[in-house]
Design goal:
Bound molecules: (4S)-2,6-dioxohexahydropyrimidine-4-carboxylic acid, zinc ion
Helix content: 25-40%
Shape: globular
Oligomer: single chain
CATH architecture of the largest domain: Alpha-Beta Barrel
Length: 389
């Protein structure tokens, strides 16, 4: 390594240092030397990054007026998103699928701006969902059914209680037959189980679902633990996992480590450093089983900053910037497009998006609010910014 080599700390500070001898450099955060990567081959840092327009395979849009606020931010960089069905009145039927999609179409028509965006509709699978409801929803254009186990997150009071009844087995078989994907919120609210253990507690249910429905395509949503990453890795190609931007950045310490940080609170809750490391490794590894789903979840400021705050991180304004920073920190920027714009589309059997999105490498400060919503990193600095078009 030559004199005055640029090196970047691969720890959280992600700091670029110019130094005489990279072997002995230490950043102010005291990350170890082994965490530095040599940028010598890339001394002129990329100043822009252009990717194929991305897919977000897990997004909470809500209803108007939030729906429009979210769409305006998302369509700047995203061509399609899986639309989560957990509205206050869950999307359960073909009729509701058509109504909800029309809400999108009306706003998109009104926004126009020449950008294309396709909402990928879903229904919630509950105990009283029938195979007939699944088929009708599929005919109405739903591409997936989402299981929220009872009581694990926002609007899951009517979540699934029994995973293996005859009716549910028929529902899964019907989904497989018509090509609908089964999306799983992979947590269970079991007795004497802390929220940090809920994902691990769900893994035996997940294994049984996969074993009994080997041909049904399943997505383990917002993976948050090392154990889930390892299990998904071992499973066949019909099983995949989405990973959020915030689970690549946060640990439990960001939520409750130095006081309660309501805008970092989400389900599943971010966990240990080892879990975060496993997620970063999975996302940047080039394994097509792992792709991006933001789980961006808007809750108005007053519903976050209160005695019983709602769960969800509002990452839609800059999830892609967060991802670029994480991938860059690992020296894996070249794999970002696979994670955001290729692996998920392939899994869902969709053509790749047309068009591109460009980011510029510039330090900027995240604004305190976007409308009624506060992003988790309000007031913090980011290294990448979407170039407005
Ligand atoms: O934190 C979360 N918020 N996790 C979820 O699973 C749902 C989401 C929401 O809808 O608010
Ligand atoms: Zn979600």
């Amino acid at each position: 390594m030559s004199c005055c080599t640029a090196v970047r700390c691969r720890g959280r500070c992600n700091r670029v240092c110019l130094c005489r001898n990279a072997a002995t450099v230490a950043c102010t955060e005291n990350h170890s030397e082994s965490k530095y990567i040599d940028l010598e081959e890339n001394l002129v840092q990329p100043t822009t990054l252009t990717l194929r327009r991305i897919d977000d395979f897990h997004h909470h849009f809500r209803v108007q007026p939030t729906l429009q606020q979210v769409l305006e931010l998302l369509i700047l960089y995203c061509g399609r998103a899986i639309v989560m069905p957990n509205l206050a009145n869950a999307v359960l039927t073909a009729k509701q699928v058509i109504w909800y999609r029309n809400e999108f179409i009306n706003i998109l028509d009104w926004l126009a701006q020449g950008r294309s965006f396709m909402p990928l509709m879903t229904i919630a699978i509950q105990d009283n969902t029938t195979p007939e409801m699944v088929l009708a929803a599929h005919e109405a254009g739903a591409v997936a059914g989402k299981v929220y186990p009872l009581g694990v997150t926002t609007n899951s009071d009517n979540g699934l209680r029994e995973f293996f009844t005859q009716n549910m087995n028929d529902v899964y078989r019907t989904m497989k037959d018509c090509g609908m994907k089964l999306l799983l919120h992979g947590e269970i609210d079991a007795e004497r189980t802390l929220t940090t253990q809920r994902e691990d507690a769900f893994l035996p249910i997940f294994e049984r679902l996969v074993n009994e429905n080997p041909d049904l395509k399943m997505v383990f949503e917002h993976v948050s633990t090392k154990n889930a990453v390892e299990l998904i890795r071992q499973m066949g190609p019909n099983v995949a996992g989405t990973i959020t931007a915030h689970h690549l950045v946060d640990t439990l310490n960001d939520v409750i480590g130095t006081g309660v940080a309501p805008h970092h609170m989400c389900m599943p809750v971010p966990k240990h450093y080892d879990d975060r490391d496993a997620l970063v490794e999975a996302a940047t590894s080039g394994n097509p089983k792992f792709f991006f789903g933001s789980d961006s979840a808007p809750h108005a400021k007053e519903h976050k900053e209160c005695a019983h705050g709602k769960c969800g991180q509002f990452t839609v304004p800059h999830a892609l910037c967060m991802l670029a920073e994480v991938f860059e920190g690992q020296g894996m920027l070249y794999r970002l497009e696979d994670f955001t714009s290729r692996f998920g589309a392939n899994f869902y059997g969709l053509p790749l998006n047309e068009g591109t999105v460009t980011l510029e490498h510039v330090v900027w400060e995240v604004p305190p609010t976007y409308g009624d919503f506060v992003p988790p990193n309000a007031g913090k600095l980011l290294n990448w910014r979407i170039v407005s078009t």
